[in-house]
Amino acid sequence: MTTNARKSAKDELPKSRLFVPSASSRPGGTPDFSDLQIPEVGAADKPPIDVEACDTASLSEGLVRVLDDQGLAHGPWNPSLDPQTLRAGLKHMLHVRAFDDRMFRMQRQGKLSFYMKCTGEEAVATAQAMALRNSDMLFPTYRQQGLMFVRGRPVVDMMCQCLSNAGDTIKGRQLPVLYSWKDGNFFTISGNLATQVSQAVGWAMASAYKGEDDLAVAWVGDGSTAEADVHNAMLFASTYRAPVILNVVNNQWAISTPASFASAGMTFAARGLGYNLPSIRVDGNDFLAVYAVTQWAADRARAGMGASFVELLTYRVAAHSTSDNPDGYRAKDEAERWPLGDPIERLKDHLIHLGEWSEEQHTSLQEELASAVTNDWKEALTHGSFEEGPHWPLETMFDDVFKDLPDHLRHQRTLLMSES
Amino acid sequence: MTTNARKSAKDELPKSRLFVPSASSRPGGTPDFSDLQIPEVGAADKPPIDVEACDTASLSEGLVRVLDDQGLAHGPWNPSLDPQTLRAGLKHMLHVRAFDDRMFRMQRQGKLSFYMKCTGEEAVATAQAMALRNSDMLFPTYRQQGLMFVRGRPVVDMMCQCLSNAGDTIKGRQLPVLYSWKDGNFFTISGNLATQVSQAVGWAMASAYKGEDDLAVAWVGDGSTAEADVHNAMLFASTYRAPVILNVVNNQWAISTPASFASAGMTFAARGLGYNLPSIRVDGNDFLAVYAVTQWAADRARAGMGASFVELLTYRVAAHSTSDNPDGYRAKDEAERWPLGDPIERLKDHLIHLGEWSEEQHTSLQEELASAVTNDWKEALTHGSFEEGPHWPLETMFDDVFKDLPDHLRHQRTLLMSES
Amino acid sequence: MSTMNMTQAIRSALDCCMERDPMVLVMGEDVGYFGGVFRCTEGLYEKYGAHRALDTPISEGGIVAAAIGMGVNGLRPVVEMQFADYIYPAFDQIASELAKLRHRSGGEYWAPVVIRAPCGGGIRGGQTHSQSPEGIFTHVCGLKTVMPSNPYDAKGLLISAIEDDDPVIFFEPKRIYNGPFFGHEEESASSWSDHPAGEVPDTYYRVPLQSAKILHPGTEVTVLTYGTMVHVAEAAIRASGVDAELIDLRCLLPLDLDTIVTSVEKTGRCVVLHEATRTSGYGAELVAEVQEACFWHLKAPVERVAGFDTPYPHVFEWEYFPTRNRITGALQRAASCR
Amino acid sequence: MSTMNMTQAIRSALDCCMERDPMVLVMGEDVGYFGGVFRCTEGLYEKYGAHRALDTPISEGGIVAAAIGMGVNGLRPVVEMQFADYIYPAFDQIASELAKLRHRSGGEYWAPVVIRAPCGGGIRGGQTHSQSPEGIFTHVCGLKTVMPSNPYDAKGLLISAIEDDDPVIFFEPKRIYNGPFFGHEEESASSWSDHPAGEVPDTYYRVPLQSAKILHPGTEVTVLTYGTMVHVAEAAIRASGVDAELIDLRCLLPLDLDTIVTSVEKTGRCVVLHEATRTSGYGAELVAEVQEACFWHLKAPVERVAGFDTPYPHVFEWEYFPTRNRITGALQRAASCR
Ligand SMILES: Cc1ncc(C[n+]2csc(CCOP(=O)(O)OP(=O)(O)O)c2C)c(N)n1
Ligand SMILES: Cc1ncc(C[n+]2csc(CCOP(=O)(O)OP(=O)(O)O)c2C)c(N)n1
Ligand SMILES: [Mg+2]
Ligand SMILES: [Mg+2]
Questions:
Q1: What is the largest CA-CA distance in chain B?
Q2: What DSSP character marks residue C193?
Q3: What mean pLDDT is reported for chain D?
């Protein structure tokens, strides 16, 4: 063993000068979100859709907020949605939460191999899907299940994916929650972080190439913004002015790693400016603000003005996944200290304030959805359980590696089937 | 063949809406650098080294200039170098140019397999090397040969590398100009673009880890900023506040591809802001400005304030390499139209203006250097020519794959030696 | 019919496909206005426009990712990697995404992307302009891997690759772009115009993938190879005096194993030849398959002649290159086993 | 001496090296404060500080690049890839840079980087938490590739890897982190405390790289394997009734070929076994080497038992996994050849 060091490896070293970022809290400590400046509700101005990136600097460092703590909507970003739309949004969020809770419990009971919740982040996917056209192509991560609820995917289908049973449209190939739904223009979710973001830009480039006006919309987590694919996405989206919306869902954590290891000490939105992308930071727990910002970005892209970069500020209330326990790396009460509240409670208060909703309606809707999910689960199980099946026929394991089965796979399939 | 398209592949398509960037000129056209705003000499202000990234916005979009067209130096960035230093800088630049011209001609005569010049960019490497400490670690591209001239590498050694002869310190392993010079803290140049930039950040992190105060300094071309490594470098440099200087040498072209395919329509320096890196754009053909900006960034890093991002605005006057002919993709007279002149002429005028230099001295220095290079070339050839050798012993081909020769390579070496 | 070198044949294939299908485009570094550093896309920019002969930023990972998205949205992108040596920044998008899309989505999504990559040495390019990474791609399930050895095959195989609905990695041995190479640098360079496979139809035609070609029959030894080494092997066989059967694999995956097995069962001997480094190269797979399928017919060990396990050297290029001597030696060793 | 499972043994190796050499650090996603998703770096943050148990951004390419720079500047970084499936974004930095640094600089520069990567299936992880990419790395000259099969070897090999001046890709079969696995999921999980190799010294020791280990001698068939499959093979051999010699390769490159050849010359038969997909996997290299070196001793074709050439499935994990049946079948076919 030789050494590259100028001083011998065995010398005592002077104190390290390497800076290492810190976390909003660690177990036993008190959560500190003080570095998070939260501007006034309604304060952010709303630029025209032909805005230059450089003129969105304040929006990228600020925070678009519409709903205040009393449930009132303020400012130019208020999308002024009608009560039916608002109630639909609330229902979608409650549906997602009911679904998550049920699936989480089923995993704990050993019915699923794995599961991931989006608790506290429901407004992101639901409000954004509602602000888009169904023909717009979605490139999500594993935390945007809400997109499918808005576009009306049967809950049973999602459960069958999580069960990898005979009813799983992707043939039991993937881990639970790595959905794919072509009919809903919902892209196949990859286990490899961030790869979908730069693919979404290519999809959008093709849309422009063909003179079509459908958009691509991609999501990526705060931690995953560090991956090269996000850089590639921003650069290509800007270079070719692709009709795409690039969303960063900043839920403060990447498993045990705080956002400070990916943020470079800035807002994530601010990174978009350096790529000449109009960039906006929005309160991700504010259904109305998320809806309005998404609509604005979609209008830009459809009008041929190119891509936008959006940071959705939210908080991952639940564990990263069923394989994770946050008590090992963050203070137990961090979620309660999150200053931007809960997206469902906030929209509910707004509707109640408008006189369009009541505690009673809310409770009965929750019950209705809970029992709907229970029934869906029962039905899903009729297509098979994960352990006992029925599953897809074993030989289908060799399908779809290629469009047509090549000789060597046919040979391997014969081998396997002769054994079992 | 099936299709993914919503309309059949055979339909006529509507007009494409895909935006594709354009070039400053194409053959037959007139070069247009009008989108290049060139601020007043001396106008840029010089912030303290503890400046926040956000307060360098104007510096990242502007242009630090010290030398005007009359050869006068202006403004807060004037490094006020003494005449000896200025003459040394001029001599280094002339030496590099004399070297390039000779090596280029030798390649044309078939003496070298390949060569790359840095004509018009000489100020970048020479001024920067002079502003750094010799113990600072350099991670260059193939266009910073000037670094070695400043640090006093024997020209014969460089020629031997280009000849891959018995005197080549890297044993004939690499293409000409892919130098390595450990004694000069000059990193081995990779044929793979941009990989050195993120490695430089790791080197700098180690320097901080060990409590040492040496810096890493990296260079990358405008086109290569698109590579993921540059994103990784910026993110890691910012996250760990690494003592590194990240330089983008914007010479307007990446082989045939204009900088507009990598710039996203902004200055390159501006991209640094989104990573929270203080970022400065400097006239790369202005020896004094380059020196001053480098010194400023080095002071920051050494004081423990972390990384800086620097764009050096220059122009690639020569072909990309001896394998390239620019007449195929840009107007013949583009170089003459370059608004920032020639770095050697500009420093020469400055020295003459100071009364510290004369046309006569200049001509005789040019002749002196030309004949020095001629003698060096003769000496280099005594260590062998590329085609006839002598080269390193054939069996050394198997060395350095690993530190010690493993069995399978020993076996292969025996096989080869038994044949030849 | 015209005589074409390999770059012209490749350009002709691209032109045919772009003319027939508006969804086909070429993209990559310097492929647009300039027509590519090896000129393979020359003229396409003028003929089809900037969006169909698309210059890109220098980010191989970004290029392949964009191509995947385009493929999913109905286009058929033909990506050029400037050199195969520079394909690795795109490796994650190729191995984890492009190759797996169809399977992981249960057949819902797929991207018909072709990645062209000039490969191989013999051009004084040093270690970063000479590599032959084909073996790695044959280990990634979901990819097809092709390497033509002449202009006629290059055009026909490339058209098949572009119209194929699976992703294809299409390696182009740059040493033979302008003419066949028989392994000895000193010999005067020969041109495709003197070679039958330099006769190429101007019109559309396909050479099916997975169709190995017996270049000339023989009884004593079967030689398996592809790309540049096909021509070196031909010369070596002539020099060796061995009656060898030379098979140009053309497509490494899926592999035309039947043609190989039939031949080896006949000859009882086999030499596997490639330019790529030996250890875990594609030659290993060929040896493994041959000995498993033909064990009872083998009269001699299946020998590999391949690049040494070092980075491709600059100055020792011709010592490194699998020479005729090394091949003839292997042929004679094999033939001498009875 | 303590009984350790594999994660404890790995942590112990890291601890030993960090204690002896201030230049050693661990870095990667979630390896610092949290101690790694598989707990392999637990406690090191408290003991050595944030800069020596370094959390990183989620960019494998950036992590390896930084590690290379650190290595060049005197440190000995031990990088953790959270899963081997996620090593590809770093592939260019590994294959083009880390592996080639020393050669291309004529020996001037090198980086003693170890990359730890949990690999293999059997944990219901689906296609992106189950891959075995070791074969690819053995084709990249300049890298050493290691895969231990038990806690004792894991600690000794990891210490050797960290002190080695060449880059080492260190694969950890995650299925056996907590106990050996004999190939049948239904069987009650066994623990390392019941296994001799679960006895691990708390102190510093090395197991040399390139030292294949004969786990038990046999006369009829030589079985070559590594990692999890070592234990599956053991069970399969018992079930088969064949008197097989089981060799745990431990280090794939450089390979301890002598031990292999001596064994195969004795048994005359060989079965190669790995979890990775079959085509162009490391098994192909082993078959090629064995048949070339031992051809005249072989009484039967060298057979490969490997993963099928499909992405690792989620629901059909146990049908996909190379089962004891497939192995016993191969053993008996081989043994039956006289
Ligand atoms: C390329 C790659 N690297 C690492 C992982 C392992 N991994 C899975 S999720 C995760 C954290 C992602 O955090 P973030 O991007 O913030 O998304 P979130 O889970 O918070 O929604 C990591 C490191 C992976 N799946 N892919
Ligand atoms: C990873 C990689 N991709 C592509 C290439 C081929 N290539 C060599 S130089 C070059 C252009 C680089 O342009 P720029 O970064 O602007 O540097 P300049 O040559 O102008 O100094 C390209 C594409 C390479 N060497 N490495
Ligand atoms: Mg997160
Ligand atoms: Mg350039």
A1: 76
A2: G
A3: 97
Coil vs helix vs strand at C60: helix
Nearest residue by C-alpha to atom 11 in ligand 1: A254
The sign of the CA dihedral C150, C152, C153, C159 is positive
Give chain B's mean pLDDT.
96
Alpha helices in A286-406 (DSSP H): 287-302, 334-337, 343-353, 359-382
CA A193 to centroid of ligand 1, rounded, Å: 6
Give the per-residue pLDDT at C188: 79
Name residues whose C-beta falls within 8 Å of residue C279's C-beta, 6 or more positions apart in sequence. B408, C309, D138, D139, D141, D253, D285
Residue type, B45: D
Tell me how close the Cα of B123 comes to any Cα of chain A, in angstroms: 27
Residues with CB under 6 A from ligand 1: A 143, 191-193, 221-224, 251, 253-255, 316, 320; D 29, 58, 82, 86, 89
The length of chain A, given as a count of residues? 420
Q: Which chain B residues have a beta carbon less than 8 Å from that of D51?
A: 209
Q: Does residue C145 belong to the interface with chain A, where contact is any CB pair within 8 Å?
A: no
The answer to which of A29-38, A201-210, B164-173, B265-274 has the lowest mean pLDDT is A29-38
Residue C82 beta carbon below 6 angstroms from any ligand 2 atom? yes
How many other CB atoms are there within 10 angstroms of residue B307's CB atom?
Answer: 33
The whole-number pLDDT of residue D188 equals: 80
Active site residue C195: no
- Residue A265 pLDDT level (bands cut at 50, 70, 90): very high
> How far does CA A409 lie from the centroid of its chain?
36
In this prediction, the answer to ipTM > 0.95 reads yes
d(CA C304, CA C273): 6
In the DSSP assignment, the letter for residue A40 is P
Note the pLDDT tens digit of each residue in B360-415.
Answer: 999 999 999 999 999 999 999 999 999 999 999 999 999 999 999 999 999 999 99
Distance from CA of B201 to the nearest CA of D (A): 6
CA-angle at A252, arms to A263 and A159, nearest 5°: 125
Interface test with B, best of C21, C24, C75, C314 (most B CBs within 10 A): C314
Residue where the block lists tokens 């039991």 = A172
B30: its two tokens: 């007139």
Residue A251, SS3 per DSSP: coil
Tell me the CA distances in angstroms from D32 to A188, D58, D160, one per residue in order.
32, 13, 23
pTM attached to this predicted model: 0.98
Q: What is the mean pLDDT of residues B320-333?
A: 96
**Residues of chain C neighbouring B226 (CB-CB closer than 8 A):** 57-59, 62
Distance CA(B63)–CA(B38), nearest Å, equals 7
Rounded CA-CA distance A15/A19 in Å is: 12
Partner residue facing D303 (CB), from C103, C292, C310: C292
Cα D335 to Cα D208: distance, rounded to the nearest angstrom? 32
**pLDDT the model gives residue A11:** 59
- Which residue has 């900023």 as its token pair? B225
> How many Å apart are CA D145 and CA D253, to the nearest integer?
5
Q: Are A170 and A188 in contact (CB under 8 A)?
A: yes
Torsion angle defined by CA atoms of residues D318, D322, D328 and D331, in that order, rounded to the nearest 10 degrees: 180
- The C-alpha atoms of residue A379 and residue A389 are separated, in whole angstroms, by 14
Interface contact flag, D285 C284, Cβ < 8 Å = yes
- Pairing of the two strands D53-55 and A257-258: unpaired
User: For residue B301, what are the CA distances in angstroms to B99, B220, B245, B246?
Assistant: 33, 19, 8, 11
Q: Among the atoms of ligand 1, which is closest to the Cα of residue A121?
A: 21
List, in sequence order, the alpha helices (H) in chain D.
6-20, 44-48, 60-72, 91-92, 101-104, 134-138, 151-163, 229-240, 257-267, 282-294, 317-320, 324-335
Mean pLDDT of chain A: 96
